């Protein structure tokens, strides 16, 4: 992909957007919900107004880097430093729009091959530099910021993007960590295989980034989270290169592999991994359903997950998110479509389902041509037992076709002065609804404390036999002059509520810098001491991604 085609101030590529002209009801809905007046205008991104401190690297330093990777594979130019200074979180993008980048890497390097990575890490140790590993740049937890006082190298892994080998007998593939989602899937699909890992950031995130943050794909009910997919990995650390065993399972003491997964670049640079694969599904079936209440939908997911035939995905939106979903839907076109919609509403009314208070679920099954119909029938039977109204395939197919498009909408809303962000957590089934209420209330109250109206939405995004994750989206009118402080207050209150009410600090976004202050509450003092001991073992000089996961 041409790097110049990427939006440095937002998401994705310049030739893609989220066309609201096809969804005329959405912005009026949002205007009413948030009390927006007129078009509104948020801060606009202008590369030339972003000032950066001068690079702290000398000509000799740059010469030493060039000797390792070649002059053409490093850059201290303004654009390269700006684009590698932040990820894609709301505060990251607002800093770009406000021109408030206080820190940036001093140079960006693009090594090719693990031996070059090792040489760069060794050089950083000798010269007391910091290294921030950079995969796809999609971090939403402050994982890419250049923190601290030392010169910082942004180590972009884009050139470590090769499929090393595919084992069609064991259904595994060994892959370099810098490969992005589409290239990885394309190579696997050519062999009739899939990793099955499709986060919303899929198009612009890397294998190494997924592993480093313990990511989850949208079909994780079938394929699992990323940590379940890793058989083997290699990591270059300041103390040497570490690799685990090529085995499916082991009882040889605590798992070193699991210590490296989720380490967020704080221990070293993940360079390769062997991933467990599945056959490319021959069939997919995605449907839409409406439930009378969120509780009914949650009960249906729990029943499916504790049964014998769990689906590939069961994404349940609460009332607020369902209303937004309906407002965002394109209007029905043609007499037949309008008639079908009218008949559906009458049938819903007979079932006692009020559209305004209903909750939509996108339900998906994947697999072979025989199992998918059987799995879908079993899932629909469970949902019907919990009062669901079946909407058919159209909502499921619409969601599937747009599943990577929503991040483009955020840029449009930021242009219009709307604060929009997400956060997520997970808990056990018995605590899911109390946690849902507590966190949603905390977000709404924090937004209202700034004198603006909130829109807080949530969906169940991933589920297990013993619990599920909650994924919140919240929106509000930006408070001019306090755009980042406004977000910081909301984030703090929401995270405090998560920790007080039995949730996890993060289900799949990771820790980065933004969640680090609460890590001791997650793991306890002794657990945090153990993580610090690992940091000292792998990185005694604090070279690797300082200030992320653990304090510098």
How would you concisely characterize the structure shown here?
This protein is of the alpha+beta class and 552 residues long. It is built from 19 helices and 18 strands. The protein folds into 3 domains: 154 residues, Uridine Diphospho-n-acetylenolpyruvylglucosamine Reductase, domain 2 (2-Layer Sandwich); 117 residues, Uridine Diphospho-n-acetylenolpyruvylglucosamine Reductase, domain 3, CATH 3.30.465; 119 residues, Vanillyl-alcohol Oxidase, Chain A, domain 3, CATH 3.40.462.40.
Overall description:
This protein has three domains: about 5-155, Uridine Diphospho-n-acetylenolpyruvylglucosamine Reductase, domain 2; about 165-280, Uridine Diphospho-n-acetylenolpyruvylglucosamine Reductase, domain 3 (2-Layer Sandwich); about 285-400, FAD-linked oxidase, cap domain/gating helix (Vanillyl-alcohol Oxidase, Chain A, domain 3), CATH 3.40.462.40. It contains 19 helices and 18 strands. It has helices at about 25-35, 60-70, 80-85, 90-100, 115-125, 180-190, 205-215, 220-225, 225-230, 255-260, 295-305, 320-330, 335-350, 370-385, 395-400, 405-415, 430-450, 485-500, 520-540; strands at about 75, 105-110, 130-135, 150-155, 165, 170-175, 195, 230-235, 240-245, 270-275, 280, 285-290, 315, 360-365, 390, 420-430, 455-465, 465-475. The strands form four sheets. It has a seven-stranded antiparallel beta sheet, with helices on both faces. Strands 5-6-10-8-9 form a five-stranded antiparallel beta sheet. Strands 1-2-4-3 form a four-stranded mixed beta sheet.
């Amino acid at each position: 992909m041409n790097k110049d085609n990427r939006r440095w101030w937002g998401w994705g590529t310049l030739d893609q957007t989220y066309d609201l002209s096809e969804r005329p009801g959405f912005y009026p809905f949002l205007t009413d919900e948030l009390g927006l007046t007129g078009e509104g205008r948020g801060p606009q991104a202008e590369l030339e107004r972003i000032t950066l401190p001068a690079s702290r690297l000398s000509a000799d330093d740059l010469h030493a880097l060039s000797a390792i990777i070649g002059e053409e594979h490093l850059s201290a130019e303004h654009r390269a430093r700006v684009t590698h200074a932040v990820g894609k979180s709301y505060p990251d993008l607002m800093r770009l729009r406000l021109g408030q980048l206080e820190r940036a890497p001093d140079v960006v390097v693009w090594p090719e091959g693990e031996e070059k990575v090792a040489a760069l890490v060794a050089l950083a140790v000798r010269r007391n530099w910091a290294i921030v590993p950079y995969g796809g740049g999609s971090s939403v937890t402050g994982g890419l910021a250049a923190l601290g006082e030392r010169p910082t190298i942004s180590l972009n892994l884009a050139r470590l993007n090769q499929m090393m080998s595919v084992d069609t007998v064991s259904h595994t593939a060994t892959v370099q960590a810098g490969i992005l989602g589409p290239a990885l899937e394309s190579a696997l699909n050519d062999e009739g295989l899939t990793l099955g890992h499709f986060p919303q950031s899929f198009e612009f995130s890397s294998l190494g980034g997924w592993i480093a943050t313990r990511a989850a794909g949208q079909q994780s009910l079938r394929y699992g989270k990323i940590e379940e997919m890793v058989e083997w990995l290699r990591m270059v650390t300041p103390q040497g290169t570490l690799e685990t065993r090529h085995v499916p399972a082991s009882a040889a003491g605590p798992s070193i592999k699991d210590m490296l997964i989720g380490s967020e670049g704080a221990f070293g640079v993940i360079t390769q991994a062997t991933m467990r694969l599945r056959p490319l599904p021959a069939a997919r079936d995605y449907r839409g359903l409406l439930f009378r209440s969120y509780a009914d939908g949650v009960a249906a997911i729990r029943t499916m997950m504790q049964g014998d035939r769990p689906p590939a995905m069961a994404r349940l939106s609460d009332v607020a998110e369902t209303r937004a979903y309906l407002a965002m839907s394109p209007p029905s076109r043609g007499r037949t479509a309008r008639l079908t919609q009218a008949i559906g509403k009458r049938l819903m009314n007979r079932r006692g389902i009020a559209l305004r208070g209903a909750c939509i679920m996108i339900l998906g099954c994947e697999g072979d041509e025989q199992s998918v119909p059987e799995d879908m029938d079993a899932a629909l039977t469970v949902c019907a037992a919990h009062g669901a109204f079946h909407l058919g395939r159209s909502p499921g197919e619409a969601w599937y076709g747009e599943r990577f498009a929503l991040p483009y909408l955020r840029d449009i809303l930021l242009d219009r002065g709307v604060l929009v962000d997400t956060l997520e957590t997970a808990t056990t089934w018995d605590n899911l609804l109390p946690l849902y209420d507590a966190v949603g209330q905390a977000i709404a109250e924090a937004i209202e404390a700034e004198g603006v109206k909130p829109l807080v939405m949530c969906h169940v995004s991933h589920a297990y036999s013993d619990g599920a994750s909650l994924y919140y989206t919240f929106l509000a009118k930006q408070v001019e002059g306090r755009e980042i402080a406004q977000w910081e207050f909301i984030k703090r209150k929401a995270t405090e509520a998560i920790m007080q009410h039995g949730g996890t600090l993060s289900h799949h976004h990771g820790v980065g810098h933004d969640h680090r202050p609460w890590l001791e509450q997650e793991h306890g003092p002794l657990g945090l001491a153990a993580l610090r001991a690992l940091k000292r073992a792998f990185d005694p000089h604090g070279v690797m991604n300082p200030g992320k996961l653990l304090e510098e």
